[in-house]
Amino acid sequence: MSQELYDLAIIGGGPGGLSAAIYGMRAALKTVLIEKEIPGGQINKSDSVENYPGFENISGSELAMKLAQHARVYGTEEINDEVTAVEPGLDFHIVRTAGGREIQTHAVILAPGGHPRKLSVPGEEDYYGKGVSYCAVCDGFFFRGKNVVVVGGGDTACEEGLYLAKLAAKVYLVHRRDALRASMILQKRVEAECKMEVLWNTVVTEIKANADGVNAVTLQDTQNGDKQDLPIDGVFIFIGFEPNNQLVPAGIRMSPDGFVVTNDQCATNIDGIYVVGDLRDRYARQIVLAAADGCMASLAAAHYVETRKAKMGDLTCVLPE
Ligand code: NAP
Question: Which of 22, 118, 152, 280 sits a CA distance of 20 to 30 A from 237?
Fold first, then answer.
């Protein structure tokens, strides 16, 4: 087992983690970024990002690449491994990985993001990859000229539905209420897209398939309870988001729905442990907010590490190699 000592360990290479790496390195913290997949996280699945300041329109994967490249400019050490545990300690915190690393660090920034919420209806799990999808950019291509259902009424459902409308013959947006939650600009675009039709006050109660994959959904009217089957080739589910909170150490304060409570410096109630991005309990979840969190957490961590080292009598600056 290898043992290493860092000032700052960042877990997760999405916009929050990468921004934290940029600020950590610029603050002369010996910084390591651990990511189990490719840098970028969820934004890799976005066809286009139109609200990250400075970029009127950029694909998620291109933005991810730019952020990762920016972090590399400062020499961020990157480890491609899965973190299995974060153990708070009095002297150092410990980060363990599936690859057998034991990383000792003064400060930890957790930036693991989240994942799509499941609809939890019959057929969803069985036909995942056979017509059920959580990513239009990844799977939309397979539905060229076909009919699809998009479930949800938020920004994601509308954006992904609009993307699918470029490929599919017809996109039904199934929403459980009589008003969309999405921003007005997206609502107007959905309204103007002739290939999209909103099915109001409707829920999907079952996804059905034959040997070729998904071929129908059962829809239920939420007002009168009536059910009917709609023949369909694919179902895209965008009903929100659940935080990846498995690595949050015991003792850290959480909201009832599983997000981590932090102060305005992204600090948790355990000294030296910070949370950024979508795992934070907050009003909105946006790329720019995750990036801003990364900045704030690293600046706060730099102050924390400096103070801690001074207390420990170590006044030497640990410069990145
Ligand atoms: P969201 O805003 O939480 O919307 C989830 C949608 O799914 C809501 O319309 C909700 O209905 C519906 N829903 C939830 N559970 C359901 C269920 N069991 N059955 C049927 N429908 C269900 O999630 P999101 O769209 O993924 O967005 C997450 C965050 O990211 C938001 O803050 C959003 O603004 C942000 N975002 C921003 C952009 C952008 O600005 N470009 C793009 C994507 C996401 P109700 O409305 O009835 O609750």
Answer: 280
